[in-house]
């Protein structure tokens, strides 16, 4: 499991420089934590970072799976959910799973790389608290780090969901998926 001991020292306190602070100080640290943890469990990998209009993702090409996603909140985004695109996204045959957004739809999270097999109870339950707080906290950093039981697994076993609001204590929850 990933541990984040340096976060309290790195969360920017000045809202006027939040995005810059997160990009310059927090994201290099979080990427190091996630990649060290992931590489320790998955020796054969090819990891790329994909940046799409302010939304960023770490993806393992070898195993075709998402590792992490993050965004600095701009507050609620009004765009229509592309339900037909979501229906075309592969879904596990395991009962009770959804095509869950890793960056919430209300923060502008789209489809494709932003969808992962997620327990339905988690997707419409526990996950909502930090998603709603992220939407209500412009300038905050919202992230998810997806952890897999073995290199062959396509469904994450756990996810770290975090919200870093400048001036407040970090809110990071590890959920069983």
What structural class do the secondary elements suggest?
Answer: alpha+beta
Order of strands, main sheet, comes to 1-2-3-6-7-8
What average pLDDT do the residues reach?
87
Number of helices: 4
Distance between the termini: 14 Å
Poorly predicted regions: none
In this structure, how is the largest beta sheet organized? 6 strands, antiparallel
The helix content is 25-40%
Overall 3D shape: globular
Gyration radius from CA atoms, angstroms: 15 Å
Order of helices and strands: HHEEEHEEHEEE
Q: How many β strands by DSSP?
A: 8
β-sheet strand percentage: 25-35%
Which descriptors would you attach to this protein?
177 residues; six-stranded antiparallel sheet; single chain; alpha+beta
Question: Layout of helices and strands, plus pairs?
Answer:
Layout: H1 7-10, H2 18-41, E1 47-52, E2 55-60, E3 65-72, H3 83-87, E4 97-101, E5 115-119, H4 120-135, E6 141-147, E7 158-164, E8 171-176
Antiparallel strand pairs: 1-2, 2-3, 3-6, 4-5, 6-7, 7-8
What report would you give on this structure?
This protein is α+β, with helices and mostly antiparallel strands and 177 residues long. Helices cover 28% and strands 28% of the residues. The chain has four helices and eight strands; from the N terminus they run ααβββαββαβββ. The chain has a six-stranded antiparallel beta sheet, with helices on both faces. It has a two-stranded antiparallel sheet with strand order 4-5. A hairpin with a 4-residue loop joins strand 2 (55-60) and strand 3. The longest helix has 24 residues, at 18-41. It starts with 6 loop residues before the first helix and ends with a strand. The relative contact order is 0.19.
């Amino acid at each position: 499991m990933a541990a984040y001991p340096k976060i309290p020292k790195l969360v920017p306190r000045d809202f006027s420089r939040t995005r810059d602070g997160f990009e310059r100080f927090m994201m290099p640290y979080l990427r190091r934590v996630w990649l060290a943890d992931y590489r320790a469990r998955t020796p054969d990998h090819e990891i790329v970072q994909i940046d799409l209009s302010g939304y960023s993702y770490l993806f393992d090409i070898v195993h075709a799976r998402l590792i992490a996603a993050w965004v600095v909140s701009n507050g609620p985004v009004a765009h229509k959910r592309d339900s037909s695109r979501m229906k075309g996204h592969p879904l596990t045959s395991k009962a009770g799973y959804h095509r869950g957004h890793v960056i919430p739809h209300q923060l502008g999270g789209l489809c494709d790389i932003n969808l992962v097999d997620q327990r339905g109870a988690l997707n419409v339950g526990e996950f909502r608290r930090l998603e709603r707080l992220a939407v209500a906290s412009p300038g905050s950093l919202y992230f998810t780090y997806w952890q897999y039981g073995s290199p062959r697994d396509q469904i994450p076993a756990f996810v770290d969901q975090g919200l870093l609001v400048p001036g407040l204590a970090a809110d990071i929850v590890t959920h069983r998926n």
